[in-house]
Amino acid sequence: MTRPIIASLFGSTPIAMALDYAQTMLTAELPTEAQAEVAAGGAVARSDAERFTIHRGVAVVPVRGLLTANSFILERYLGWATYFGLIQTMNELAANADVTAVVIEGDSPGGYVTGIAGAAQAIAACAAVKPVHALVNPLAASGGYWLASQCRDITMTPGSVVGSIGVAVMASAPVQPDMRGDQNYVLTSTNARAKRPNPSTEVSIGAQN
Questions:
Q1: For residue 177, what are the CA distances in angstroms to 171, 173, 183, 185?
Q2: For residue 122, what are the contacts with CB-CB under 8 A and spacing of at least 6?
Q3: What is the b/e burial string over 119-146, where b = at least 16 CB atoms within 10 angstroms of the residue's CB?
Q4: Are 205 and 179 members of one domain?
Q5: Same domain, 154 and 112
Q6: Number of domains present in the structure of the chain
Q7: CA-CA distance, 39 to 34, in Å (whole number)?
Q8: Is 111 found in the same domain as 177?
Q9: Does 193 share its domain with 145?
Q10: Over the stretch 155-199, which tens digit does the pLDDT of each residue have?
Q11: CATH code (residue 137)
Q12: pTM for this prediction
């Protein structure tokens, strides 16, 4: 019997994810230990995963894997971050006088849209009271980059990948009254107008030379 793959937990949920980097994770089979919990409805009362470590006053918070709002199955068995866990962690570290700085260690292609705004706000709130640094090792893409961008600065290990900002959507509208009379348009977020540059412009051509 084939075990369900991780993508089956995502369904049609809106995602902020760099699919090129996430494909291997999405098509991986769920660990055997997680099957009973999936069969029972996919929910556990709490997570036993270690969400951060503290050494000499510096807390390190791994943000790994496909990010979900509260999938404790993925957090428990794979060590992947959840937005609920991040909110709890950042609130706790912000209030901990023994923690002088926080490092968000990013290794994620992104994840759910639902819940990410709260996690981003929790990181920003912690960064307002003590230094919070992002260390990309080696990936902070899409939703993962959104979280890293809330830190005071971003450091990348050699060969790491970050980005991108905003959303790009392809849409079409009829310009002629027949089946082939559609015009395609690329729509981008207001603050990410350079997300899909026109490659025929002089600026783009100059950047390639």
A1: 17, 11, 12, 18
A2: 86, 87, 90, 91
A3: bbebbbebbeebebbbbbbebbbbbbbb
A4: yes
A5: yes
A6: 2
A7: 9
A8: no
A9: no
A10: 999 999 998 877 777 788 888 777 678 888 877 777 665 666 666
A11: 3.90.226.10
A12: 0.83
| Residue 133 three-state SS | strand
Per-residue pLDDT tens digits for 101-138? 999 999 999 999 999 999 999 999 999 999 999 999 99
Do 131 and 65 share a domain, yes or no?
yes
Written as six digits, the tokens of 113 are 């849209």
Which position has the token pair 């000499």?
56
Give one DSSP letter per residue of 50-91, joined into a string. Answer: ---EEETTEEEEEEEEEEBSS-HHHHHHH---BHHHHHHHHH
Is the Cβ–Cβ distance between 151 and 104 less than 8 Å? yes
Considering the domain boundaries, does residue 58 fall inside one?
yes
The boundaries of the domain holding residue 16 are 6-164
CA distance readout (Å), 174 to 1, 84, 112, 183: 48, 43, 33, 6
Q: What one-letter code names the amino acid at 86? A: L
